[in-house]
Predict the 3D structure of the following.
Amino acid sequence: MIILAFNYGHDSSACVIIDGEIRAAIAEERLTRAKNDATFPINAIQWCMEWVGITDRDIDIVASAGRNLRLDAHSFFEFPPSTLGVMNGLKSRIKGAIRSNYFRGLGAIDGVLPLYCEKIKLRHDCKVISVEHHLAHAASAYYTAGLGDQKTLIVTMDGIGDVTSCALWRGQNNKIELIRSYGADSSIGWFYGNATEGLGWRHGSDEWKVMGLAPYGNPHPGTLDGFHPVFVDGKLVKPHDYGRFGIWRDHGSQHFHGQEAAALGQIAEKLGREDFSAEVQRVVEEQMMALILPTLREEGVRSVCCSGGCFLNVKFNQKLWYSRALDDQWIYPDPGDAGLAVGAGLHAYYQANPGQSNKRLRDLYWGPSYEDQEIEIILKERGLVFEKPDDLAGRVADLLVKNYAIGWFQGRMEAGPRALGGRSIIMSPLHADNKDRINAKVKYRESFRPFCPSLLAEYRDTYLNNARDERFMITSFEAKEEKHNAIPAVVHVDGTVRPQLVYRETNPRYHDVIKAFGDRTGEYLILNTSFNVKGEPIVCHPREAIKCFFDTGLEALVLGSYVVLKPDIQMRDSECTALQPGAQSM
Ligand SMILES: [Fe+2]
């Protein structure tokens, strides 16, 4: 069974699922290079289909995230007759025509595909389904958790999706059943977004800056009363009217404006940005705990599956874990709206195949990859001096020990917001000022933002207190006190780390580098941050990696089996003068 699924909206994305296996998935932004791209994900759809080698005639189900197929979807697809899709299409076309310039006398009709964009012509027996936004979030969490027949609580929470801001579900035996849901007046995500905008950042994508700043301040309980809903004992007791919301489109992305952002900004000025952020974070943690903990008890379960943008809040995820209310906490590692394509696709698959089991997700390497041969051609075209060491892991570990900032580009690109050793910037965790070096010279971002480690799974308990198997940097844990000074570049000011546990079976080359670094220094982890500069999507193609390398203070670049050093580093690095056989200089 071949399923094509997509999300068209905030963080558009697509995926192809074959017989229940996610074979390709990517956010539109990675291909168009427009951060948070919210346009129709035609590039993502085309790439996914090409990668798995299918044509439009092979597709059995098209699953769209969100209650309704939007107008532009009908521009790109030729839907089969007698489907919900075509009905929506007719309605949408009429509405679109009424809105179009044509009827304003300008002679143009919106949404007409030019000849060079071919429509995806679906078979007559292809099913087209729409999957409600929060159900798609729930499916992304539950059908990747591998819980078998075990009953679990599923929680989905974001700003708003369709008409829901938060929903509680029961998952068991491959079925997802709604317990209760809440609308816009219960949105925790909007409160966080308004506070983010109040601090001068983008509502809908910069919330994690508030989270990064919060540990530098002290909360002031009571100062933000009246700006958020209140939950008590698992239920909403005080809804909040957020007023009208504005949408701002910026280079294909979609951001939001809340009426209360200005008032929150004034409070931030009074309290100071750090204390304000600390109070915002405290409120969010308090409200989410007040909703989730009693519901766990009500359901009689000690496991939870989570998705939706609010679960990018790694500090909340940590708090829930350390509450000791759980034996198992699974957070879908792409919980924002880019992850909806996978959720919609998995929902479609398990609706059609309710007897199939699922396994817990082990990796997110679902994007494009490039062979050495292709990379070498690109390096030669650029006239770059490069080497191809026999012992790549040892060579890279040596460069890390010399404290170089390295662009690391390997294999298939990872889906989701975190770099996981596919498209990463790596550096030694041993020097405190490496945080400032990367912030100032490479990422061009705020100095308070923390960096996180990729840590060999077998050394987990050497570094972390009461941690679990967590491969996706989606939650933080307390770092062992005795390690704070040993790895200062990856321990946040509050003594926490947000790790990626690295297993050899999922990323052998990355594992080997960390192991080689550990053998040289005694610390089996490295600093890992996403391979991009502030405001840009993570690099996808080798050419983008090279561009980022030369546009920043990165000192070395590892592309597949090849190592490139900046000219001044080449001068300093004596090993570089002894290029390995096969190395080129053009
Ligand atoms: Fe969402």
Q: What stands out?
A: Residues 133, 137, 158, 161, 308-309, 337 surround fe (ii) ion (CB under 6 Å). The longest strand covers residues 152-161. Confidence is low (pLDDT under 50) at residues 576-586. The two ends are 49 Å apart (CA to CA).
